[in-house]
Amino acid sequence: MELFFLCGLILFTLFVSVSLSYLVFQKTNNKSSSMITVNTNNLPPGNMGLPYIGESLQFLNTGRKGHPEKFIFDRVAKYSSDVFKTSILAEPTVVVCGATVNKFLFSNENKLVQSWWPDSVNKIFLSSTQTSFKEESKKMRKILPNFLKPEALMRYIGMMDSIAQQHFQSGWENKEQVTVFPLAKRYTFWVACKVFLSIQDPKHVAKFSVPFNDVASGIISIPINLPGTSFNKAIKASNQIRKELLAII
């Protein structure tokens, strides 16, 4: 049991470290005429890559090889800068690395910088037109801490232990060799389904995980909505998830 949670903690730490090592942000200046002007002299060094595609292929290729951070580290070394420009998934992007810059960004959110979602993500997750992204972010920040308070976490311990035991029995026991990462993801998703949706049945969780995996793959794919593409599968999976959630509600 201790070994499993240690592996899970290591995986979670790696995920958070890589995620926080770069924060993607875009600064736009909306004029009354809906024209956008950018002062290229203030942009950091970098390469925007091919038209529309940008450097998406290089970014996705490093991810498929299991080293997504290589895309970041290679460019930091190439440009000798912790800040560089690129184009990923059809979006002009600035990537920043390091604690100092990330602290600056996080402390100036909705002041100097603003959170945003690429158009490709908005196509996968249809957002409400009644509220802005800023308002939705505030709501989420108010809701999530309730699930992470010490009192709440104490209530989850028994449930997490029960799911862990079932998880070990179904995925770990009597196996000569196991691949930890997908099993850890399965366990995490199982716990999330129980906490947020009150779903604990393994068959229901497994069925629910299929469209979620399609969505996860589609988010980090080139946003070409043609039959058979990862992006198209993600849009269909998102609609399926929405129907499932409405049925639960």
From TrEMBL:
Gene3D superfamilies: Cytochrome P450
UniProt GO molecular function: heme binding; iron ion binding; monooxygenase activity; oxidoreductase activity, acting on paired donors, with incorporation or reduction of molecular oxygen
Residue ranges the record marks as coiled coil: none
Pathway: Secondary metabolite biosynthesis
Signal peptide positions on this chain: 1-21
Keywords, comma-separated and alphabetical: Iron, Metal-binding, Signal
A single BP term in Gene Ontology: sterol metabolic process
Protein family (similarity comment): Belongs to the cytochrome P450 family.
Name this polypeptide is given: Cytochrome P450
Organism: Dipteronia dyeriana
